[in-house]
Task: inverse folding
């Protein structure tokens, strides 16, 4: 078995190296690449992607998996070898079952689709985008059919982003969550609004940068195996476990944007930096799912980064950086300001309390589209009425309504729920962490994060992609993904911020 | 034929993309990569290099070349297609003739060799490095034998860096040059030394950067398809014709280092940026040889950048950047200072007048080593006596003597002459350019470089690697590489600087 396993690993290592190279090309494209070099970069990415795909989907990988599967069945199912074969099989089947013709057509339609979406959004013209979205939904239904039988036609789509997750599960989770979230928003809306105007002054970029570096260094970000750069859209990327990089966008007139974005991306980066080196250069090196990844970024951004103890430690330092802007703003006022809740039209600007509602709306609509119970032409109307129902606001046009997100135009159907699942998982983990580290708030108040990071490393990070998200959450907390801790967290926090 | 040619190009395009990705990985490694990420990067580079090698040396490429060769024989021999097949054949033969065992052994010995050389240099212990150099010379003799028959055993080594060049040719060129260079150095040494102490004050790095940007922007460096970064050792690299990057090292206490280094690297970059896009993603996209490349960097660095008209234009601006340091230094004093000649022990610190002698010494010694007329154990003695003979200085130890360069430890035997050939070609081109653009000095005095760059683009850059260096120089100047123009240039310039 050792021999076959090594043969498989050799191929997987090469594929991982090719993917790492592609990731670096992508990083460069978004940070330093000259404006006029996009065509060549496109060629390079296409070539590397194609070679990696051919290698990974080769008959040799198929034969090795067939040979290895009965053998690893004898091993501990949690062993690296057994999990490697299992996850590789899952990805191999996904990559080999889809016909080349579908892949080509999908690439063609989504490339044009994104282009048309960009123009349609500028023109506020949903009708223009409609035929492309219809085609994309149709292609995604065809895609789902390849993986029949399934419990629900949306399952194979969800599975691409959240392996193992079922439509019935997310429906149940969000079905419980939605009325409680709606009720919370209403309770907040009945209270006087908090002031956050002091966040919107002029804040020198270099000072924002330096403060952020201090924060994430204390969080445990490993600069020997990572770095920070600027980009138009913040992201985390990595080229192996030992090179995990974050990027940040700084707004000179809104100080909290870069702070929480930096902490958020560092949450992703700590996950990647914490994967067991035994998994390096295999499909197990990386987060378990988008939802698990988001649980780490959100945990650091919100449960840690927007908490009172966190700012008990860091606020005096932030005031030192910006005495003119924040010298006369009390810690309590600052804490309320960074936790202001304001139902709004745009998902990416949403606060912690309203964010999930933006997601649920999208999830419900895309399930209906894939099921066929909603037609694309009726989408704007469905969007707007749900916005009113969930958030109490109605888009003034499709630009700040149904046309706001890039995902569907690029064919990403099944993605959105992972954002909300990340929020739920983060709170569920947080309850467990606080049981295991009872003095965690005190530690955070002192700027000490090593016990927290150690807990995350031990329970989550080191496992990489060995376990699917539901399995991993259950191993840690004793139950599958559950919205109750998140609602407890939100209610507790915002009842104090807003006094109800 | 179109069909076969397209098949060949498809493979060559993929190889070019892989090489471009490797080059970006290398650029990142020397500019931004975190310190702890070297192992992963090594794996990625090894995988990409191996895949590119397998693709390029495949039987399919061999068959396509065989099919195409009789067909392109019917075409204009200067056509892109004919030249592509010719150059691909040359590289294919080089890459396929060398046995895998030799490649593995060479990689092993040079990896250890470089390590030992670094330590030996620190310890000033040639004896420690000696057995490794002996093994490397032996492997290089074996390498040459693979390409027998040849006129001279050193020919196949030279050919790796300067395709088509013969040992007899470089011997003849440098045989003429050496006595004249030695005589020139002696004439200079008899004159009072010029003062350059004003170059060695404190110069703020950002100002050095900004001045350099102004200079190379005027030279015509295309920032839409390139960028500048910092690195420990300055270099130029590219990922296609549309992404050509330079790096610079800034010394806070020696202003001329970064200026001339930036201009030098920009000379390389202008070459790569000027290649005809029809050659993109093929072995023809890039410079003709290391010597031709160096002719471009040296032309800009020395014949343009260290010329009086150049500083008539730029010196007032440099004085504006550094009024405290240079406000009281006259243009004439500055010009003499940046052209100071001082025989020294270290090649990379050598000035324009002495540089070639460092090269000739190395070239003669490595030819003798490969011929077997010199033993490695006798190398330090041979080095030191030649230093005294050519430059009038003797190394005080092997650290500043025979152990100073990395090249031999890495197996690069045949490389050195390209530095000096670049100098010679640059002056030969310069005479021709000044015939074609009679008012060039006036243009330079006005900071106008477009006619010069246009000339280089038209005569050299656009051809990429279509022509070998001797062929290209002859097409342009009417004669092969000739040391006379360079000696005329040096004598004319330094007789004025030193007044003899």
Result:
């Amino acid at each position: 078995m050792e021999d076959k396993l090594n043969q498989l690993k050799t191929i997987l290592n090469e594929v991982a190296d090719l993917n790492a190279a592609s990731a670096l090309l992508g990083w460069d494209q978004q940070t330093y690449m000259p404006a006029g070099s996009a065509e060549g970069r496109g060629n390079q990415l296409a070539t590397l992607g194609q070679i990696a795909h051919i290698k990974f989907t080769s008959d040799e990988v198929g034969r090795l998996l067939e040979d290895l599967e009965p053998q690893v069945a004898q091993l501990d199912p949690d062993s690296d070898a057994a999990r490697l074969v299992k996850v590789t099989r899952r990805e191999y089947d996904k990559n080999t079952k889809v016909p080349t013709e579908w892949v080509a057509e999908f690439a063609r339609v989504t490339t044009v689709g994104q282009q048309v979406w960009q123009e349609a959004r500028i023109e506020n013209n949903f009708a223009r985008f409609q035929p492309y979205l219809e085609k994309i939904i149709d292609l995604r239904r065809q895609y789902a059919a390849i993986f029949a039988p399934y419990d629900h036609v949306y399952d194979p789509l969800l599975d691409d982003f959240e392996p193992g997750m079922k439509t019935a599960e997310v429906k149940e989770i969000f079905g419980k969550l939605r009325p409680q979230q709606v009720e919370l928003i209403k309770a907040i809306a009945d209270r006087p609004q908090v002031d956050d105007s002091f966040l919107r002054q002029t804040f020198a970029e270099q000072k924002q940068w330096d403060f952020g570096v201090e924060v994430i260094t204390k969080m445990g970000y490993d600069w020997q195996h990572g770095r920070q750069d600027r980009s138009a859209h913040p992201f985390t990327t990595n080229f192996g476990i030992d090179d995990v990089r974050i990027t940040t966008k700084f707004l000179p007139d809104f100080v909290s944007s870069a702070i929480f974005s930096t902490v958020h991306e560092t949450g992703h980066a700590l996950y990647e930096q914490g994967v067991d080196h035994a998994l390096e250069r295999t499909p197990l090196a990386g987060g378990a799912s988008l939802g698990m990844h988001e649980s780490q970024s959100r945990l650091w951004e919100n449960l840690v980064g927007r908490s009172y103890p966190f700012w008990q430690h860091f606020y005096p330092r932030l005031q030192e950086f910006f005495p003119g802007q924040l010298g006369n703003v009390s810690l309590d006022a600052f804490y309320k300001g960074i936790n202001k809740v304001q139902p709004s039209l745009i998902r990416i600007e949403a606060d912690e309390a309203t964010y999930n509602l933006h997601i649920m709306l999208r999830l419900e609509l895309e399930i209906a589209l894939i099921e066929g119970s909603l037609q694309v032409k009726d989408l704007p109307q469905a969007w707007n009425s749900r916005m009113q129902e969930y958030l109490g606001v109605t888009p003034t046009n499709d630009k700040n309504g149904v046309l706001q997100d890039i995902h569907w135009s690029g064919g990403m159907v099944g993605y959105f729920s992972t954002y909300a699942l990340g929020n739920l998982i983060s709170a569920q983990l947080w309850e467990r962490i606080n049981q295991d580290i009872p003095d965690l708030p005190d530690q955070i108040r002192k700027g000490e994060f090593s016990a927290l990071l150690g807990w995350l490393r031990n329970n989550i990070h080191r496992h990489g992609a060995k376990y699917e998200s539901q399995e991993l959450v259950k191993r840690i907390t004793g139950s599958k993904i559950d919205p109750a801790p998140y609602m407890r967290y939100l209610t507790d926090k915002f009842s104090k911020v807003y006094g109800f």
Q: What stands out?
A: Residues 2-148 of chain B form a domain with the Methane Monooxygenase Hydroxylase; Chain G, domain 1 fold (CATH 1.20.58). The CA atoms of residues 39 and 261 of chain B lie 30 Å apart. The two ends of chain B are 63 Å apart (CA to CA). Chain B has a mean pLDDT of 96.
